[in-house]
Amino acid sequence: MTYFEALIIAIIEGLTEFLPISSTGHMILASSLMDIDNPRFAETFEIVIQLGAILAVLFLYIKRFFVSITIYLKLLVAFLPTGIIGLLAYKTIKLYLFNPYVVSVSLIVGGVALLFLDKWSAKKESEYKEIEDISYIDALKIGLIQCVSMVPGVSRSAATIFGGIFSGFNRQQAAEFSFLLAIPTMFAASGYDLLKEKDNIHSNDITILVFGALIAFIVAFVAVKAFVTFLNKYGFKHFGYYRIILGILFLTYALSTGLQLTA
Question: What is the pLDDT of residue 261?
Answer without folding.
Answer: 55
